[in-house]
Amino acid sequence: MTDTILVWLDGPYSYTHFGICSALSKIGKFDFIGIVTKKQDVSFFNKQTIVNFKKLFYYPDCYTNKSSYNNSILEEFEKKYDLNLWLDILSERYFHKYRTDFHTFSKNEILPIVEHSLNFFINVLQEFNPKLILMQAAGENISNLLLYRLAKKLQIKILMTNIVHIHNKITLSNNLISREISDEFQKLLSNPDSLINKHDSNIIKNQSLAETIKVQSSYIFDTSTPSQKIKHFINRLNHDPELIYQNIGKTKLKMLKGRYYTHFKTKKREEYLNQNLSKSISDEKFLYFPLHTEPEAKILATAPFFTDQISLIENISRSLPIDFSLYVKEHPGQQFKGWRSIQDYKRIIDIPNVKLFHPSINSQELISKSQGVIAISGSTAFETLFFKKPVFLFAEEYFDVVSMVKKIDDISKLPQIIKESIDNFEFKNNELDIILQATENVSITIPYFSILKDGIILSSIQRNNPDATLKHFYNFYDNYNLDFKLLAKIINKKI
Asked: What is the location of CATH 3.40.50.2000 in the chain?
């Protein structure tokens, strides 16, 4: 029998996943089922002849122009598939905390989208019974998070490209945090003689995720010429936007105002940062809290109760020993999301034992001079292990199995955990060696963010000049041919 692979073709990830499917089709026979999330991409996947899709779906068709929902059906979904729907609904950036300049969603608008999406995914999974679902890390939006939850309950194999906190390393994981690395750590810990390498603790200075941020900062989301940009903008003003929930409320007037307002708002915020955020590290005891960018899929999906970072900073500041301060650093990637509001920065600065640092400050310098790092999750916490400092985490991470990391499950115990961990901290070199060896054994080394960067360019070409997309895809595939072959080979083994 031919194995069926369900492929989630979502925006800029579409062309990366399509490249993987192209490589898979060369090494085996598979039935590919595609779910496309953007209208602009449907024509490309319908016309191309590289991968023979048994069926292509345009996901928004399942919920557009549907305004009713049934609470009893949603209750049944929760029971049958072990879901916590409001937990996932409120992790959707458009439904709650973020990007509501155009529209604020009501319960009566959200629940029809959720109910009809669940119905659609369940029907597809039941009809095609895929052996594997290929998708990006769940949590980018409510749709891929619901698909992930359903697949886990139905015991359908999922493979997601999860980043590892070392530059150009990823895992093909069936869970949100790459627990495969944690499992490998436990195996190696029980048999330390199986260690292959002793690792240089300076490795992170050359392979920090800061290198990844440099790649991300070079992303080009629009390759169109000035005339194409004008044409595209006029077209958007003259036609209603695509009927997806992300476009609800995008009237012509709001789009014009939004573009004008965002430009000047971002500029004003940057001026505030440059004038008011600290750029020098004092000689005092402190814990370092690195801000995450917002919105960020990782914390929305894996730490839903800690997404209010300012409230979390206030609670951490209450938990510090009297002779400690909390140093908070803005994430350089927040620039691409318009920075935070000035009011948010003022709230942080006004806390007496907190110091807010400019995003240009070297994160590793803050780590090296700190008494430890307290973070929701992320690469800064991982890098702290190389500086032999304690780590406090609010979310699960694959490296939270090492004894130098304390997981905060009950925030009311935070003062006690901080004090005891600092007073009794013991660094274990062998555990750092083992977690690095486990990472090496499980992860894949490919230029994943460079691949995504060029996938984003393909998405822009498809939007502005769809007749040229196929030619550019061939160049894209040739450029990363070995990487796609490696991914396909590993996926084929996992199937």
From this structure: 251-387+389-426
Q: In residues, how long is the chain?
A: 495
Interatomic CA distance for residues 287 and 427, integer angstroms: 17
DSSP, residue by residue, 56-102 = EEEGGGGTTT-----HHHHHHHHHHHT--HHHHHTTSTTTTTSS-SS
How crowded is residue 246: how many other Cβ atoms within 10 Å of its Cβ?
18
- Of 242-256, 278-292, 332-346, 428-442, the range with the lowest mean pLDDT is 242-256
Q: Which CATH architecture has domain 251-387+389-426?
A: 3-Layer(aba) Sandwich (3.40)
pLDDT tens, 123-141? 999 999 999 999 999 998 9
Question: How many helices and strands, by DSSP H and E, does the chain display?
Answer: 21, 13
* Whether the model pTM is above 0.85: yes
CATH architecture classification, 3-178+443-494: 3-Layer(aba) Sandwich (3.40)
Angle at 247 between CA 230 and CA 307, to 5 degrees: 115
**Of 456, 459, 455, 447, the residue nearest 483 (C-alpha):** 447
Which two three-digit tokens encode residue 423? 């007073």
Least confident of 230-239, 303-312, 423-432: 230-239
Question: How far apart (Å, rounded) are the C-alpha atoms in residues 423 and 116?
Answer: 53
Q: CA 389, CA 426: separation in Å to the nearest integer?
A: 9
Closest C-alpha among 379, 203, 202, 393 to residue 287: 393
